[in-house]
């Protein structure tokens, strides 16, 4: 493995390996990583990255997906309109599906790992293929092939948005025999997407950006509530349930995030993203070129675990105290379909305590909110635009940030960590900041030439990240500093 630098590190990087189309997918059981490389599917061990399986594909690969039990894996070629499935435990077993004239826009696994849902071109139908009986059933007129559908968390039911004769409807299917259980109209002009609450009690439906409307339905078709924050202007940009289903966060084009609670279905609080940040108790972490910092007393590199780790660019706490001004860009509404304005990133961490948001006309800033105290606790200000954020799926207060450069950025709440065989792996900042949930930030450069991080994906156990460039990838393991 490549060492990140110096003696005290928090990330340990592997060598680089080839990948196509950003298709490096960890298995749900954390034991393997599947990568597409031209016309081949390469399955590697998740720890050593040694090749454990190699499959030849019929054409270039557009989709790679693991079954939920990690025993089967599929690849799909949209050009060839074909799907291939292999068994990891039985190399002699394989399955091929040719969609023919219907075409292939997308394919996903059903939660049972023994059915495939393939979406035809032009949203004509979904074909449900059984790998056990070799039979097929059909669902007509899905509205989208890449969104507008979701499974309940326990995998029992499938919700699908449909559109026919200019009307939006929602259908609920039983995933055991794929029978239609409920079909009902939804009060949208042009449905944008749907999301099932983690507890399975509600389905959120929201309209296109032209109309601000969030609808909450029960799975039996009853309308629970309808919410609209305003009537004029562009509306909803993103919607996210909290892990407990207690809150729905709505990112809007008016640069606010609204937190709706599931008791009254009214806004609990609005989180604004002002250009002038006045509150003095908010920690501001600003990325700076350390060579440009003349007063070393203002430089405080994040975390005791990286106190010896110095890089040319590093997230540093220059002891910036609000009020400060957050840089913003002008949204050129007349030139783009969806203007770069409003809250485009809105994500809860794994235990629901923290919410991270990015206001798209302030693309260099990430806002961290504490939902216990209902207040902002940190602002991460980057040199370049924030392209992606990923909360660790196991460590509650650890967030990875990508700016499409050679650095991986980490924000920690200060009390994050998990147990690694009896040894705690910590990512905290100063002890004084633990209770406040504002541990700190760091920037760590991938030790490779011309490697620009375009995508980040945590492994399901939260112990490593898949870092992807356009044609290569590596793993970054969390280690004790």
Automatic annotation (TrEMBL):
InterPro entries: Centrosome-WD_assoc, WD40/YVTN_repeat-like_dom_sf, WD40_rpt. It comes from the Eukaryota. SUPFAM superfamilies: Tricorn protease domain 2. It holds the Pfam family WD40. GO terms for biological process: microtubule anchoring at mitotic spindle pole body. SMART domains: WD40. One of its GO terms (cellular component) is MWP complex. This is WD repeat-containing protein wrap73. It comes from Physocladia obscura.
């Amino acid at each position: 493995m490549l060492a990140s630098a110096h003696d005290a590190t928090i990330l340990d990087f592997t060598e680089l390996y080839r990948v196509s189309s950003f298709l490096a997918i960890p298995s749900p059981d954390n034991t393997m990583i599947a990568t597409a490389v031209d016309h081949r599917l390469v399955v590697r061990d998740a720890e050593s990255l040694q090749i454990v399986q190699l499959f030849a594909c019929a054409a270039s690969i557009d989709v790679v997906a693991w079954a939920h039990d990690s025993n089967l894996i599929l690849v799909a070629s949209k050009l060839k309109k074909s799907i291939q499935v292999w068994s990891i435990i039985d190399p002699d077993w394989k399955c091929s599906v040719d969609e023919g004239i219907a075409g292939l826009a997308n394919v996903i696994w059903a939660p049972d790992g023994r059915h495939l849902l393939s979406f035809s071109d032009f949203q004509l139908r979904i074909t449900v293929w059984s790998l056990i009986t070799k039979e097929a059933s059909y669902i007509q007129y899905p509205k989208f092939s890449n969104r507008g559908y979701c499974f309940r968390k326990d995998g029992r039911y499938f919700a699908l948005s449909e559109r026919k004769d200019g009307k939006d409807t929602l259908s609920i299917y039983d995933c055991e025999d794929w029978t239609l259980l409920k079909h009902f109209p939804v009060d949208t002009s042009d449905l944008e997407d749907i999301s099932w609450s983690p507890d399975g009690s509600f389905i959120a439906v929201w309209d296109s950006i032209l109309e601000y409307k969030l609808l909450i339905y029960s799975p039996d078709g009853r309308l629970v509530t309808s919410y609209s924050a305003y009537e004029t202007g562009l509306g909803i940009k993103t919607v996210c349930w909290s892990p407990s289903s207690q809150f729905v966060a709505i990112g809007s084009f008016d640069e606010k995030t609204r937190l709706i609670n599931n008791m009254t279905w009214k806004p609990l609080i609005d989180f604004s993203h002002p250009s002038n940040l006045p509150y003095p108790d908010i920690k501001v972490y600003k990325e700076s070129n350390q060579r440009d910092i003349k007063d070393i007393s203002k430089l405080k590199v994040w975390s005791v675990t990286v106190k010896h780790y110095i890089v040319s660019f590093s997230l540093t706490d220059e002891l910036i105290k609000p009020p400060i001004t957050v840089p913003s860009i002008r949204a050129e509404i007349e030139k783009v379909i969806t203007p770069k304005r409003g809250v485009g990133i809105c994500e809860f961490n794994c235990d629901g305590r923290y919410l991270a948001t990015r206001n798209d006309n302030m693309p260099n800033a990430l806002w961290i909110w504490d939902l216990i105290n209902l207040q902002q606790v940190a602002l991460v200000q980057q040199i370049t635009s924030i392209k992606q954020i990923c909360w660790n799926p196991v460590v509650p207060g650890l967030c990875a940030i990508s700016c499409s450069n050679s650095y991986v950025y980490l924000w920690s709440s200060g009390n994050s960590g998990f147990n690694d065989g009896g040894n705690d792996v910590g990512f905290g900042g100063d002890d004084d900041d633990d209770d406040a949930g504002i541990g700190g930030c760091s920037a760590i450069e991938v030790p490779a030439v011309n490697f620009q991080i375009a995508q980040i994906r945590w492994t399901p156990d939260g112990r490593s990240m898949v870092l992807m460039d356009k044609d290569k990838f590596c793993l970054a393991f969390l280690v004790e500093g």
